[in-house]
Design brief:
The chain has 315 residues and is of the alpha/beta class. The protein is 39% helix and 16% strand. The N terminus is likely disordered. Bound molecules: iron/sulfur cluster (SF4).
């Protein structure tokens, strides 16, 4: 176990971890999950943004990361967040495409407006866009349907269906499968940040409804950075009395990963920042785990851990 922050400064002392184990009746152990935090795609987008901001003006099409605190930090450095309407009126500027990716329409608009694109589409998403495009071309010859298991309106999903001119069915859960014609071939893909268990359940539900002899193929395209974190986070949550999961509420992978914590430890709380911590959560608590989503900055988890360590009203 990594003890990142273990002192209760109201007592005016800081003890090394070994002493704290002996004195644990008075002290709360706080561990920050060292595997939580930005995924590769988000790190790449943020580092690129910071480099570009050092050199001058930069716009981001949509929020570069689903975390208001991190976004505020980047805005203070000069990042300007642009809406799609804003893109259509901008000219001769630099615009960053975030890790979620974009449909071809966005690139056309940027060309028309003489914008310089700084493309930070995550390579994992880019590969998925290409796979979907290739599959769609083949499916068209078989009168088939392409299904995407994802959140309607999510930027990544918009980027995916944009590759197909919008000709795909987006389903968020088993209940939405009624829109599928099971007498025609079906190919199923997933948004990269979905839950692997939910994807498996959806596959089974489609399989059960397919008409005899009609083909169905599913491709598990959930990102390894999300899928791998679920069991690891569940194990982390299970070994603490209380878990503080730090994430923007808009983050899809945040919701999936928080569900993994919650199922392993009912005393798991989703917070956007330290200001949401409630003292009542820590009754009879000897250890606190702090973890987060792929869009949660490390510094924010550290801030949360420090708040638990320092707040006078936390038992
Ligand atoms: S979760 Fe995976 S696919 Fe999505 S941005 Fe991060 S690394 Fe890329």
């Amino acid at each position: 176990m990594v003890l990142q922050s273990v002192k209760k400064t109201k007592r005016g002392v800081t003890l090394p971890p070994a002493s704290l184990i002996l004195c644990s009746i008075h002290y709360v152990y706080i561990e920050i999950d060292h595997k939580s935090g930005f995924c590769y795609g988000v790190v790449r987008a943020i580092q690129t943004a910071e480099q570009m901001l050092d050199a001058g003006e930069l716009f981001s099409l949509g929020e570069i990361v689903h975390n208001d605190r991190e976004l505020d930090r980047l805005k203070k450095k000069g990042l300007q967040v642009l809406s799609y309407d804003g893109l259509a009126t901008l000219r001769d500027k630099k615009v960053l495409i975030r890790a979620h990716g974009e449909p071809p329409e966005t690139y056309r608009t940027a060309r028309d407006r003489r914008l310089t694109i700084v493309d930070c589409t995550c390579p994992v998403v880019l590969k998925l866009q290409e796979r979907i495009k290739a599959c769609y071309a083949e499916l068209k010859t078989q009168n088939g349907q392409l299904l995407i298991f994802g959140k309607r309106g999510h930027a990544e999903v918009n980027g995916l269906i944009g590759q197909l001119g919008g000709d795909a069915l987006v389903v968020e859960n088993v209940a939405q499968l009624d829109a599928v014609d099971f007498s025609r071939p079906v190919r199923l893909f997933s948004q990269t940040t979905n839950s692997p268990q939910a994807f498996r359940a959806l596959c089974e539900a489609v399989k059960a409804r397919m008409h005899p002899g009609v083909s169905f193929e599913a491709s598990n395209t959930i990102c390894g950075q999300v899928a791998g974190r679920q069991p690891q986070l569940a194990a982390f949550a299970a070994r603490h009395d209380v878990v503080l999961f730090v994430s923007g509420r808009k983050s899809s992978n945040g919701q999936v990963l928080f569900a993994a914590c919650r199922s392993a430890n009912p005393r798991s709380y989703l917070i956007e920042d330290a200001g949401e911590i409630e003292a009542g959560w820590f009754t009879a608590c000897r250890s606190v785990g702090v973890c987060g989503a792929t869009s949660t900055p490390k510094w924010l988890m550290e801030e949360v851990a420090a708040t638990v360590a320092n707040r006078e009203d936390i038992p």
